[in-house]
Amino acid sequence: MQMIKGNIRAxxxxxxxxxxxxxxxxxxxxxxxxxxxxxYKDEYGVWQEIPDSSYCxxxxxxxxxxxKLQALQVILNEYVNACSGHYNENSPSCKRLGEKMSWxxxxxxxxx
Length: 112
Description:
alpha+beta
């Protein structure tokens, strides 16, 4: 699942990560979690990784699609705002932003 706005792309990736490292399907307390990766399209039209912008989140792989879409939109919007709408290799590091966004979880999108 991915979203693009301007020259910035956000995507969910499944790497088999869980709450304490690798996902353990035999542990009933563990969940397989999603990671977000951010990239930008360079002046040649090639997607490049945005440094310091790949983080495992608290979003389970099994979360509803609607929640995953909402969460990815929030992540993308935060990066677009931080980069003034256009990322390039001279843009500042997004490490702090990525760390903040890694806390995203389904409960952030459910009514309380």
